[in-house]
From TrEMBL:
<keyword id="KW-0350">Heme biosynthesis</keyword>
<dbReference type="InterPro" id="IPR001015">
    <property type="entry name" value="Ferrochelatase"/>
</dbReference>
<dbReference type="InterPro" id="IPR019772">
    <property type="entry name" value="Ferrochelatase_AS"/>
</dbReference>
<keyword id="KW-0456">Lyase</keyword>
<dbReference type="InterPro" id="IPR033644">
    <property type="entry name" value="Ferrochelatase_C"/>
</dbReference>
<keyword id="KW-0963">Cytoplasm</keyword>
<feature type="binding site">
    <location>
        <position position="126"/>
    </location>
    <ligand>
        <name>Fe-coproporphyrin III</name>
    </ligand>
</feature>
<dbReference type="InterPro" id="IPR033659">
    <property type="entry name" value="Ferrochelatase_N"/>
</dbReference>
<protein>
    <recommendedName>
        <fullName>Coproporphyrin III ferrochelatase</fullName>
        <ecNumber>4.99.1.9</ecNumber>
    </recommendedName>
</protein>
<comment type="pathway">
    <text>Porphyrin-containing compound metabolism; protoheme biosynthesis.</text>
</comment>
<keyword id="KW-0479">Metal-binding</keyword>
<keyword id="KW-0627">Porphyrin biosynthesis</keyword>
<feature type="binding site">
    <location>
        <position position="263"/>
    </location>
    <ligand>
        <name>Fe(2+)</name>
    </ligand>
</feature>
<comment type="similarity">
    <text>Belongs to the ferrochelatase family.</text>
</comment>
<feature type="binding site">
    <location>
        <begin position="46"/>
        <end position="47"/>
    </location>
    <ligand>
        <name>Fe-coproporphyrin III</name>
    </ligand>
</feature>
<feature type="binding site">
    <location>
        <position position="182"/>
    </location>
    <ligand>
        <name>Fe(2+)</name>
    </ligand>
</feature>
<feature type="binding site" description="axial binding residue">
    <location>
        <position position="13"/>
    </location>
    <ligand>
        <name>Fe-coproporphyrin III</name>
    </ligand>
</feature>
Amino acid sequence: MSESKIGVLVMSYGTPESLDQVEAYYTHIRRGNPPSPEQLKELTDRYDAIVGGFFPLRQHTNDQVANLQKKLNDQFPDRSFVCYQGLKHAAPFIEDGIDQMAADGITQAVGIVLAPHYSTMSVGSYIKRAKEQAAKHDLNIQFVESYHLQPELLTALVERVETALQKFQVDKSNVKVLFSAHSLPARILEMNDPYPQQLMETSEAIAARTGLANWQFSWQSAGQTGVPWLGPDILEDIERLVKEEGEKHLLICPIGFVSDHLEVLYDIDIECKQLAEELGAQLERTASLNSDPRYMQCLAEAIYEQLEG
C-alpha cells in the first residue's frame, strides 16, 4: 500500500454480533470476570428485547466506517484515506486496527472515537491504547479528542429535535426536552474532567438554536460497579418531572450516543418509555445519527482539521 495513504482509526465501544456472544463481550468489559448466570440472563434478555434475534447494532458501526471513508475521499481528494475499525470490547480490537494499518504499510494516521465528548475514562482510554500499540510499529498517529461543538454535528442534532417535537400535539414550550448521555463514575468530577462541561455545552448550543427554554440534562445507563456514578438517573428525572412538576410531554435527545445501541434501544425506548406510560406521560426520542451524511461530514472535517493542524 502506498505510503501516501492516511490511515483513520475509527474507534468505538463495540457490541456483540449475536446473542451467543453476549457472555464473552461482558466478560471482556468486566476485565475477565464472567457475569453471573443471573446477570447474563438479564443482559441477554435486554438484547433479545431490542433485536428479537437479529443484531443491527454492529452493522451501524460497519456502515459508519465505510461511509466515513467515502466521505473523506470525496471531500478531500488531495489526500487518500483508508479507514480501520478499532473496538474497545470486541474484535477487531483497537490494537487489531493499529496492527492492520502497520501491515498495510500505513505510516501516518489519525484516530477518532464515535463519541463527540471527551472524558479521560472513555475517549481518553481509547487513545491511550491506540498510542501504546502505534508506538510498537513507529506509526505516526494523531487524535481528534472531541468534536462536541462541530457545526455539522449541531445541525444534525437540531434537525432531529425539531422533527421529534412535531410528534407532540402541544406547543413546544410544553414539551420538556432531556438531553442525555452515558453516566460515568462520579470520581471524574475530582479529576476536573471535561466530560460534564462538554455535554452541557452541546445541550446549550442545541437549545439556543431550537429556541428551547424548557430543557435539562440527564444521566443514563450507569454501571452497577459498587462506586457512585453521576446522577440522578434519567428514570428518577422522569418520575420527578411527571409527579412533582406536572410535565406530561417528554422528549429525550441522547446527545452522548451516535448510534442505535443498547443504551438507546433498551434504556430509552423500553425502560424510559414504559415508565412514562405508567405515569400517564407521552415520551418520544430523537432519531440516532447512525450514518447521517451530516455526521459523516462532521467526522471528516474533524479528521482533516486535525491533520492540517
